[in-house]
Write a structure and sequence with these properties.
Order of helices and strands: HHHEHEEEEE
Strand content: 25-35%
Distance between the termini: 30 Å
Radius of gyration: 15 Å
Number of strands: 6
Strand order of the largest sheet: 1-6-2-3-4-5
Largest sheet: 6 strands, antiparallel
CATH superfamily: Cysteine proteinases
Number of helices: 4
CATH class: Alpha Beta
CATH topology: Cathepsin B, Chain A
Shape: globular
């Protein structure tokens, strides 16, 4: 496996996250992991982050993730959608990238994907045999800590959105 960016692992089902937020806390947990990487120990209350980012029971919309993370970080930061090529550049620079799997709002209901709807942190990639593989933190599950997973990009490409977070 290629080298990955070391992020603090956090499950969206951890006891410190409000029970009513847990099913839809993947976006705030992804933001938390990335923020903690850049600014260790400055953002530790996921419940407050959930509210600040505009989390909802059905998830965190990409535009809210971007808009509200920009507000939180200030003018010295870039938070924006990026292509898969920009994702690779960010990873090569040592910057983790947020990724959103979303078959519902991309109108790809019938496809088979790694996730139907989920935010994750991309911490590495590898290109082998003409295929791109993404290394992600999965944000855990009920009674399961967050784990590093390797997922193929191509079968998920039509439902993936990437958001880069970097200092200007």
């Amino acid at each position: 496996m290629k080298k990955t960016i070391p992020l603090k692992k956090k499950s969206q089902y951890d006891q410190d996250i409000k029970k009513r937020y847990r099913n839809s806390a993947c976006g705030p947990v992804t933001a938390y992991a990335i923020l903690d990487y850049f600014r260790p120990n400055q953002f530790h209350n996921i419940n407050q982050l959930y509210q600040a980012l505009g989390g909802t029971p059905i998830g965190l919309f990409t535009y809210r993730f971007i808009r509200n993370l920009k507000k939180l970080l200030g003018d010295d930061w870039i938070v924006e959608k990026c292509s898969v090529e920009k994702l690779k550049q960010q990873i090569d620079r040592g910057n983790p990238v947020a990724a959103k799997f979303d078959k519902w709002f991309t109108w790809n209901w019938r496809g088979r994907y790694s996730y139907d709807y989920h935010w994750v942190s991309v911490v590495g990639y590898e290109e082998k045999e003409n295929e791109l593989w993404l290394f992600i933190h999965d944000n855990g599950g009920r009674n399961q800590p967050s784990q590093l997973q390797t997922l193929p990009y191509k079968p998920n490409a039509e439902i993936l959105t990437f958001v880069k977070v970097e200092r200007k």
